[in-house]
Amino acid sequence: MVRFWILVSLGLCCLVAPNDRFVRAEVRPPFKTGGIYEDEPQLLLDESERSDASVEQGAVVPAQAVDERYRLPKTSVPIHYDLHLRTEIHRNERTFTGSVAIQLQVLEATSTLVLHNRALSIASAKLSSLPNGVTGTPTPIGDATFSTDTTFEHITFTSPMLLQPGYYLLEVSFEGRLATNDDGFYVSSYVADSGERRYLATTQFESTSARMAFPCYDEPALKATFTVSITHSATYSAISNMPQQETFNEDAMRTTVFQRTPLMSTYLLAFVVSDFQYRINGPQRVYVRPNAIQEATFALEAGVKILKALDDHLDIPYSAYMPKLFQIAVPDFAAGAMENWGLVTYREQLLLFNSAVSTYRTKTNIVTTVAHEYAHQWFGDLVTPEWWEYIWLNEGFRTLYEFYAAHLAYPEMEYWELFNTQVIQAAMVPDALATTRPMNWNAATPGEISALFDRVAYPKSGSVLNMMRHVLGEENWRSGLKVYLEDRALATAVDEQLYTSLQSVIEGKNVLPGDVTVAQIMRTWANEAGYPVLNVRRSYDTGDVIISQERFYSDRKVPNTNVWMIPYNFVQQARADFNEFDDFQWLATKAARISTTVPANEWIIFNKQQVGYCCVPYAVRNWKLITNAWWENCAGCIRLNRALLIDDANWLARSGRLDMRVALNLMTYLRGEREYAPWTAASVVLSYFNSRLRGTAAYHDFLLFVDALIENIYGMLTIDVVSPNDTLLHKYLVQTISTWACTIGYKDCAEKTAALLKAEVASAGQTPVHPDIASVTYCYGMRSANDAEYQYFYRKMMDSKNLAERTMLIDSLGCTTNKEYLMAFLTTALGSGTGVEINYSADERRRMKQDVYSGSRAGVDALIDFLMDPTLVNDFFSILSTSTLNSALSAIASRTNNEEEMNRLNALLNALGTRVSSQTATNVRNAAQTNVDWANGFEGLMLSNFLAEYVAGIETDTTTAPATTTTASSMSSTTAGPGPVTTTTAAPPTTVTTTTVRTTTEEDGGAATIGLSIAALLVSITIHLLG
After folding, report:
1. The one catalytic residue among 373, 417, 675, 844
2. 376 assigned ligand-binding residue
3. 26 labelled as ligand-binding?
4. 372 labelled as ligand-binding?
5. Are 87 and 198 found together in one domain?
6. Phi and psi (nearest 5°) for 492?
7. Are residues 323 and 390 in the same domain?
8. Is residue 373 among the annotated active site residues?
9. Based on the domain organization, do 725 and 763 belong to the same domain?
10. Model pLDDT for residues 125-165, shown as the tens digit of each residue
11. Is 680 within a domain?
């Protein structure tokens, strides 16, 4: 399952912008959540609401206590479910009825059968024996009594007689209500072109919600077969995991019966009742709402290509187990996507593509999400983890193949290039905390299980598996996976069974040293929390290198006893072959000495292409050798390792393992950098500094520092035109650099974005901004927008039926620095004082609030003003809840950098009074004060000192940023994929136009005099659009 996280707070994104806008809107869509905004700042809870997450420094995270009472007893197991449901969702009837006949096997004598049930009303239950097996005629036993334990979500059926080991039939009739929280069997809806709201019933069962649709054995190991039938309106259709077997009508209702499934877990069952239409290619279909049918073509193409790529790669045809594979875009869907076997469900943003409005990032997200879910058809569906403790056997493989299968299907698109920055580096930030967990981690309650779908299960596990793929070699990797999948097909697995399968294909091949096994290696990675630093210390006299390991913590350096089996390799400056992976060596002790012939005047770099899941600190001399070499010619080190070294140096400096000045000096080579991967790693670093320094005395120097870094690359890019020849990575690069240019005040950037925005408005949309540059253009163009332009984009957002475009427009409207516009935007989000219920989703309302404070300090001030108004804060509180208010306060605190801003925050907390608990208010103040104090702390002083010295050494003044004159095609050429990586660096531009860097710390965004309230205008637009 794809979790829909946005990793803003940790800077773990493919584009980390200096404001929060594009970080949130454009990152890869990871994982399952209860909504869009689990990336909002950590809520500042009362101490009584906190769990004790502290651990002893240097200690391994302790095993989590698990309450086994949540598990079902092992007295019986299911064999087959015959499930029938009836829904009248076509008329928005939320009640559904059903019956299920469960063929089961009693394993030991018992008088009770314990299943799962959540909120279903049981009408009747009866038991029969099956003395001749599951195919024989049932012999009635009698009615079963039943009782429900809501704490453990168990329902106990008590038999009128003792059930001896054997086969039985349990028949249950029940009634339930469709949920409204995108979980279980739930209701969704969309608005047709006629303006009518149409309803559908759909499912999301992972991880513990099949029990909301029917009583069942809702644990992954308790696999069974299913026959599903659904009675629904004859004007609607029903789809499920298997193809339709037959239908029959009765009055205005139709019953659709589906073929019997293979053995599968309950959480993978799925069905949808809707009036959707579909596009088809052989056994694959894509279902969408009727008014989006033109946007389904690309997802179908991607599905066909990716399924073939995985069939060929794994050498186990999907069709050997399942006859069809449908995808469906669900309007209301909390998870990013869900891998139900044969019926994959998605958020609309991750499946629908409209070339007129969808960006290159949307297209990338669609391809990688389809790849992720299709990989699940083998890893998770065909072979399922025995328990949630091993969920990484699902999500780790799918995170790896999210990019690898995308590369196999579209090798020309360079998708694999995104793996390091979007997966490996994203995983390492939270995994460097003391509170992280190991990959193997037990759980029992639904909440504990849901919490396992985290950055350890996804990017960390995917990174470790990618490391093992390189260690074993591609041929052995594929052969080992085939053994694993065939041995465990239609069954469950634990980690040791994967290790055994991989080991079986390398016996006698000398792939691993001595008697070392796959299991021994993987246990150190799957059972240990965190990851290692591989310390490298050179003897420049002898050439010897001493390497050592210890656990890396991002906020401390403490002794620890952790030992991983670390595969490592290295290159030297004169023979820098970064594409060779037959040279792994191993560190399985705390330290070792290795001999090299590297001359003292050459750099040495460990961890080729960041294949190893570790961080590598060097002594200062080696860092200086690297920096000096990169100043002369950075192409001597491939772009993936340049990105790695920027990322490593940043975190090593912030953890106290490296002088901050060394890390910053390394970044100065970026004046000659032309590739996306290093720039996105650098953007993470710069974004952190930007957030810390804004509003402080050192911010002016920071702006000049960024100006010096980007001036050359900005002059080589065309930011206002998209060429058909632009590569994917080039588009990422353009967005990264243009965002920084506009943020630090390049006049050229501001003028071009404003011109594009105004041209679209003036033509009434006939000359729209190209989707691939729209997010930057709209956001920064909005900063100079007038009333008519702001209203145009508000109307465009309200008109849009493409959720990805709608989201981008909402983000852009929050970019303005005009406080009146921002207040109006917040007002419409809540419907406050308008007398109109504006038709935003709950996610959109929360997003609008987040967009306001993320865009600029002017947005933070606008939000403070909004919350200071007693009437408006009451609406905010009632519509968006206490937790959303707390997260808003946490966001304001994280953006408080000086005494004036601290005073504003204190005034807000005083005005809110009892709406905020005293402990929450204290936590908010403490967090803000920590920010204010940072500038005068060690890290802040080191940074400001470096910047002051750097700026003093710049010979030019602050008006040196060149404007674009060259075309995209003159920039660079990159080779995609997990094979050899090459880099070609462009020549510098021959013609530039000077622009101005804005060096003030904040735009005042002075609002123009407005004769008619902008809020009233926005409301009037909404009323008109809603008819």
Report:
1. 373
2. yes
3. no
4. yes
5. yes
6. -115, 170
7. no
8. yes
9. yes
10. 999 999 999 999 999 999 999 999 999 999 999 999 999 99
11. no
